[in-house]
Write a structure and sequence with these properties.
By secondary structure, this protein is an alpha/beta fold. The chain folds into three domains: about 150 residues, Rossmann fold (3-Layer(aba) Sandwich), CATH 3.40.50; about 40 residues, no CATH class; about 210 residues, no CATH class. It has an eight-stranded mixed beta sheet with strand order 7-6-8-9-10-11-13-12, with helices on both faces. A five-stranded parallel beta sheet has the order 2-3-4-1-5, with helices on both faces. Strand 3, helix 4 and strand 4 form a beta-alpha-beta unit. The chain is globular and about 70 Å long. The protein starts with a helix and ends in a 6-residue tail after the last helix.
């Protein structure tokens, strides 16, 4: 590979990173470790690399030590496995100090995993991102043999979303009439259109989210796995969206598709569901009470961004509300369950903290008695349950339940906390 071309690519990338405005995100990296960044398309993986570069330069690392290469650059269209050595050689030509290597969309080059392993074994500093269509977290662990840490990058959480919109969410701002009004107005956008970083400032947010969905569906799922029944796949994803909040077995989704004339086998349904999870489009939360096999086969499914889910729904704010709560819990805790038995029905349970969470759009009318009864039954049935909260769209108060305080909190305020309850 021509070294002058590689240097041109590196220097051009330096200029992009220098000028790029970075929104602070709630991630931290051990600079002594090597990383692979994975996650939903357009969640901000490349931007995260820019942030790491800017932080390194701020600590005194020279720009000539930064080797940032985006392998989607057309100047690398003829790049071959044998050219990887030229990257190391160019770094030595640019600086006599250790290099920091940022390899974006590395999966475009056949044999990338061997080079990545060699770089880690040689104790280089390496950060990698890749397309979900060819680089999934489960495969990375196998191909890189534990040499890299995997960091899952999500679309903005609500705190990051407000930061990106230059909105103050301090305690003082939340307490003021004007500050609260601004936050709640921005929350409406976040609630319906999600947290994809590049959607901020766009007029057609829904169209942007729809384009991401199409890329995931057609590229990361159908293209990667050679699916020809695109219509069946599309309808299945719509039915999953319409079932958010409800347990959904493979048999149930298979029967739903069968009744509307979609002729795919149950095994194919299982494969499609797995592909959708591997592409970070959806995730599953399982029943704490279920046997191990049932936990795997009768979960509740949620979309990894509210904007994606909202593509399929009309006047379904209660599903969007539960989905946005599920996203935060799923991203924060390793183990999150729902509780479902003959006498218990709790939306979410976090064993780590002993917290039960009910989600109710409103507690008006019969909803109050229903949610309180569910929490009472939860305390009776689950000895690990120590506390509970109810998340609503806008209502807020404290309920005394047999000496236990139940916090009722509006979802926008709950999303700004670092706590489960």
């Amino acid at each position: 590979m021509n070294h002058d071309i590689l240097k041109e690519i590196i220097f051009d990338q330096h200029e992009i990173i220098r000028k790029f405005k970075i929104v602070e995100r709630e991630y931290s990296f051990d600079i002594k470790a090597d990383y692979v960044l994975v996650g939903l398309r357009r969640a901000g993986k490349s931007t995260m690399l820019y942030k790491i570069v800017q932080d390194l330069v701020a600590t005194g690392v020279d720009w000539n030590q930064i080797i940032y290469i985006n392998f989607e650059d057309e100047r690398l269209s003829d790049f071959k496995t044998s050219d990887f050595n030229d990257i190391i050689a160019v770094q030595s030509e640019l600086s006599d100090k250790e290099g920091w290597f940022f390899l974006d969309e590395l999966q475009n080059i056949d044999g990338w995993e061997r080079f990545a392993r060699r770089m880690a074994d040689a104790k280089h500093h390496v950060f990698i991102t890749g397309s979900n269509a060819k680089m999934l977290s489960s495969e990375i662990e196998k191909k890189l043999g534990g040499r890299y840490l995997t960091q899952y990058i999500t679309p903005y959480n609500f705190r990051e979303f407000l930061t990106a919109n230059n909105v103050d969410f301090s305690s003082a701002s939340i307490s003021s009439t004007r500050g609260k009004g601004i936050i709640r107005r921005l929350f409406s956008d976040y609630f319906y259109y999600g947290g994809f970083p590049e959607s901020i400032g766009l007029t057609d947010k829904r169209g942007y989210v729809a384009s991401i969905y199409q890329k995931v569906l057609l590229g990361d799922i159908a293209g990667r796995h050679g699916i020809r029944n695109i219509s069946g796949l599309r309808i299945m994803m719509k039915k999953i969206a319409e079932a958010v909040k409800d347990p959904l077995s493979y048999s149930k989704i298979h029967n739903i598709l069968k009744t509307i004339g979609i002729d795919i086998s149950k095994d194919t349904v299982i494969d499609y569901m797995r592909y959708a999870q591997e592409s970070y489009l959806i995730f599953a939360i399982r029943n704490y009470f279920s046997k191990i096999v049932d936990r795997e086969t009768i979960p509740k499914y949620y979309y990894n961004d509210n904007g994606l889910l909202n593509l399929f729904l009309t006047d379904e704010d209660s599903r969007l509300l539960e989905n946005i709560v599920a996203i935060k819990l799923h991203n924060r805790y390793e183990d999150v369950y729902y509780l479902k038995s003959s006498d218990t029905d709790i939306d979410f349970f976090i064993p780590e903290t002993g917290t039960a969470i009910q989600v109710a759009y409103s507690l008006k009318g019969t909803a109050y008695e229903r949610e309180i009864k569910a929490i009472k039954n939860g305390f009776k049935s689950v000895k690990e349950m120590k506390k509970a909260a109810i998340i609503t769209y806008e209502e807020e108060k404290t309920i005394d339940l047999d000496g236990v305080s139940i916090n009722v909190i509006p979802v926008w305020k709950w999303l700004l906390t670092n706590l489960a309850d």
